[in-house]
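Figure-free illustration: sequence to structure, shown twice.
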Amino acid sequence: MDTPQDVLIDRVGRTGRITLNRPRALNSLTHGMLETVRTALDAWASDDRISAVLLTGAGERGLCAGADIRAIHDDAKLGGAGGRAFFRVEYPLNELISRYPKPYLALMDGITMGGGVGLSAHAATRIVTERSTVAMPETRIGLVPDVGGSRLLALAPGELGTHLALTAATMTAGDALHCGFADHFVPSAALPALLDSDDPVAALAPLTETAPASELARQSEWIDHCYAADSVEEILERLRATGLPEAKEAVEQLLGKSPTMLKVTLAALRRARALPSLAATLEQEYRISCAALAHHDLVEGIRAQVVDKDRDPRWSPASLSEVTAADVARFFATPEGGDLRLPR
């Protein structure tokens, strides 16, 4: 249930401050929270008293772990109307952030995943720390990267984004910078100076330091080779053939994911590379997400990971060979209630 304090909206000097304020739930997003953020951004866009916006998360653990997936699970079991309404608020908000008319700074300190990426990684200024853990982990729960994440992943260097999307692997600060999810590294010890400033845009530059190196970048040769394949089955074959322990671990990660969602994710990323804009990508993601709400694997994946926590999802179909091209194509069809149409 939303409370008026789930998002804190205030002003420090000429900076509009948005604080996601559900720390016990790792600031996971509800429909009402998204509407509160949207209302504030719409008002500040034309408010001459506001020169910049700063997004942060309450608590010590992170900015935001994503949507309230338990609520999505319960709604999907009832037909998914609430989930579709949630996406119709969330995705336009992601698109607005990408073209916001004033400096929008997102502090991606700690855990920043899923919907948290949607509120931060499309910002003009994206800040990570040594505590940052950034991911699009949707395949863990029988879903596909959304909130514009499929575009960010598709445009990451080489095939790093494909690896991240399919395995649901996490990024360190150095990885996030290398993959295009962040712009600046600020040590966590320096954050108070940024947060206490009434001009965070000016305060940022002297606080920025060189981030630790990206481990993903070091592994790019085998990742690029394996994930350039045209099918999930061939990706698995190439991973096994490398003989590398990191590739073996990737195989194990893939085999635990929904076969359907792995194939849909790969198709979504390949299509996203050819799409002209974030808006077009979000429209594609809306189709996929609506289809996922009606698919067995989303409810089952959340059940296994979050509700019962037995970590033993029973996917249907259970194998890659059972997932047909027609099965994948259904996720790109016009959803019930029509398409999402965003500004171009």
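We now fold a second protein in the same way, so the two outputs can be compared directly.
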Amino acid sequence: MNATSKPSSSILHQPKAVWAVAFACVVAFMGIGLVDPILPAIAHDLQASAAQTELLFTSYLVITGVAMFFTSWLSSRIGAKKTLLIGLGLIVAFALFAGLSSDVESIIGFRAGWGLGNALFISTALATIVGAAAGGTSSAIILYEASLGLGLAIGPLAGGLLGSISWRGPFFGTATLMAIGFIAIVTLLKTPAVTPTPTRLSAPFRALARPGLGILAAAALFYNMSFFVMLAYTPFALVPLGLSDAITLGFIFFGWGLSVAVTSVWVAPFLTARMPRTRVLWCVLPLLALDLVALALLVDSAVGLIVSVIVGGLLLGILNTVLTESVMEATDLPRAVASSAYSGVRFLGGAIAPPAAALLAATISPAMPFWAGAITALIATAIVIIGRKHLRRADGATEGALEEAEAISLGDA
């Protein structure tokens, strides 16, 4: 049993500042799935190809991933609150600019700026919630992942409803909600009296040399490829089956995101209370691969794709929570450094998947992206299993003095 992962009954009894950050997290994660239902509409109205339209994900995720390596350096110098507010301000500005754009190239560029704001906000928000929430690390991470799940659920729904009016609507809606989040954090999140110790610019990169964090980051790289194959490519797989309007796609991916939220909050803690975190990963990652195989085999069935996507959301919710908990427990690094290193690698995996999926579909077959996603899920499984001896701390075990010294030496190299 992994006692450290058992959720506390105080998860809903949090300071107002934590709820303010959590609300902003929901809106930030809405930005990931927001464009999902309007991808076909943008492609049609702006005369863009599927590969070009998928770059709305890639530009956003590449900049998010790269920038996340440097967020801990910035937040340790100007403080978490200022970093969060700068991130939110950038999201408001670039979401507004994207909504005012008249060509797909401009939207791709503004989504990149949006990604910079997202990186500053998301990485710092995770460390802020973990540091300020009541109920311990596990409860804080469950709250964070619940925000992620709700954002992934509401994002496509809002994108679908607003996108049925105009593809510009979701961008303006996000700018408005993020402005509300900005005001909430200004008023409710207090600036700590103690200035944090500045971290070195290279700290997240050196952190990846620690075996536990490096292994989990590598697994997350391939896992996120599977994640974004499902999220970004499935709308295009549904178009030939007559499901191309924004509202329909919005409701489908609302169900997917709601599944992510449900298992993040209830199923993941249930499993990690009864078995080590790494064993949960060994069990659920292969199930994700099987679900992607089902998507590949059922690519000509609308019902089959919808059911498989919802089932995939259930599995992704478990994996998101367990991977994040594992990262936060795998080392004794500062939370912000561990979050920056892990999140940077993870989002780069997500950046690769959307254009690669569109290319595979165009050159081989519509089912090929799902087959590729199944393979990357199995690679993630293999990485966790092969590196299991370095993940004992993630399971709640205490490292021996020699192992800890070796890890520190590697991290400082």
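Summary for the second example: Residues 299 and 367 are 6 Å apart (CA to CA).
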